[in-house]
Predict the 3D structure of the following.
Amino acid sequence: MEDILWGLIIGFPIGLVLGLSIWCCCCLMNQKTCSNTKIKTSFPIQVTGTNLGTGANSDSTSTGQDSPRTSGWSIYMIQWLEGHIKRKNVASACGIPNYAFKDLQSATLNFSTTIGKGAFGPVYKAHMETGETVAVKVLGTNSVQGEIEFLTEVVLLGRLHHKNLVNLVGYSTEEGHQHMLVYDYMSNGSLSSHLYDENREPLRWDLRVQIALDVARGLEYLHYGAVPPVLHRDIKSSNILLDHSMRARVADFGLSRQEMMIPHPSKLRGTFGYLDPEYISTKKFTKKSDVYSFGVLLLELISGRNPQQGLMEYVELAAIDAEGTGGWGEVADTRLDGNFDVKELTEIAALAYKCIINPISGKRPSMRDIVQTLYWTCSRRNQTQNVPDRAEEPCLELDIPLSRERSFTELER
């Protein structure tokens, strides 16, 4: 009897401790499972909520406040990349308005108001019953790449908001009809149309610098204002749209991806003339690949020459002449008729050259470096001209492409 009593005295505390230990382990495992579920459903492209670090980004859009309409979208991005989601679900998850097909058909006069044509379908001007004017991109129903473009633009533009990115205002995916994306209308068309349309007034030099800064700000936001970063992957003059006051916005996110989610593709994506040589050789696209494309765009703004029509050879000859003496003025667009600041042009051409000359992408400047350089170029001009310097608009304020670039995507079809 005494042995049994001692057994109870010793065994009870031990059993109690073991029971409590098992209970605690179960609670911890359950908590971890819940935590993992929360993480999976909130994997975001989110905005850092901080100023991007240069004087050029003090405007409210650069601070990157989260949009209230996009809280649950990112799990759909992951599922889309895995090929497990329908376009209706991803669009509704982003909270973007759904337009009725008949309303868009009426607003475009039965799709007769063509203003451009992208790689995957035409773009129409639409006058809505509300009085607003929008642009409607119609995507091919039989194009797998068109389907991917639709999902990409809805997911990214439904989440990212910045004054230098085109604004997606709606979509349409009615059964039996082609699916469509609806954007703010950019009344001054594409940058390429201003550079190459002889019927348009040539862009003034100060407008070209402002456009360059606007585009740089948009890319800086994608690279450093979104978490994870977003890579555009198709920067070119026909993808830069100009609003009523000639301010530039980056458009066409059909090839864009989150940086951390880009696999090594088996086929190149992008547009001839703008592609990073390192990307061509390694099939790996990085932020510095966007930087290379931006450098080409800068040279295009300076020279008025198409990258697919001998721009780079022309630039290389000018760079040789410019060694140690400056000589970039020789590449200036003849339509400028000499109306440009030689020092500014030399600085910006040298910046563009840094973006493209280094075969090792890591040695190229970042978009933050580029924004800072362009910002101070504008700021100095304002000081010289006694113009009040406003950090969000340091320069004078400033679609319908005439020539289409041949893209790898188009050649694959």
